[in-house]
Model the fold of this input.
Amino acid sequence: MGRTLPTATIVLQQEEAAFARFRRALRRSDQLALDELFTSARQHLAAAQYASHALPFEVFLLSMLLEEHKEVMRLRERVEALLKSLETGDARR
Amino acid sequence: MITSIEPKFGSWNADILKAAFRTDGRDEGFISVTPPGWILLVGPRQVNAAMLTAIARLGESCASAPHGAEAANGGLPAPACPDGHLYLRYWRRQSRVPQAQVKPPWPAVRVLDGGNRFNAYTVARLLGGRPEVLERITVSRAFTCYQVLALLESTPAMPCAFVVLDLLNTFYDDSVQAGERKRLLRACLAQLERLGQSSKGVVSVHPPKVPSQAAVEMLTMIQAKAQDTIFIQPEPAAPEPLRLF
Done:
């Protein structure tokens, strides 16, 4: 018995291959950023497979967005912590 | 060397299935099931992508059509279907309900996949992931020639289009004796005839990877039963655009 649908891993590889020419046209710095986006989508392949969405690329985009939002949240926490430390430093002076 | 399965004439475009089903040009776009029967498409495996495009278009046009029983049957009285009586009574009493809001109890397109050729992601992408259309395309798969027969036997005759993808794929399996394969194919053709009495259908066949005499004989058997046979020659690939870097 064969698989009736390609797996999420295969679909992501196909999508990545489909964007190969787009990637090639980008600057080197942008290429690295694009690679990071696909890497972040790869982190949620199991969830994408479980979702069995009709349009898997939408799930990959959401995975990328999820990782970006996590990064924003991490940075926001750090900024808040830095602001707090600055405020406490000012109060001591 | 097989010569009869290789493309002989004709050229492929995505509208060929639409033409085969004789969908009319009006906005309703429903399928005319007269005359009933099925046609045979013979071509290489590359046409499968265009076949999926055609299935998506067909599903789209059928799903957006008015879902009256008469409309689905090309203006003819609806034939009996397993739960058709209940549906027809409901339809006539609820005449104020806009036709587009009432869904018939049968799908828009039935895909019977004999070679694992149906890629749901491709069709979903072509339809923009619209669930109201996707849920009206049903797919059934078979992985052996015995399963193909069982699949066709278990498919009820309904007034909706059917597409059989790569019917002969499992029949090329040498582990089943040629005589047995032909017997199964004969039974399958009888089932296709049954299905073709109530709706229009398309059956696709691809050439085998390893040519054999049995494959030629099986194709001849199918051709004899088909209403019409179209040999498809894939369009030559477009020249690569000039790369600047």
Observations:
- Helices of chain A lie at 8-18, 20-25, 28-42, 45-51, 56-92.
- The mean pLDDT of chain A is 92.
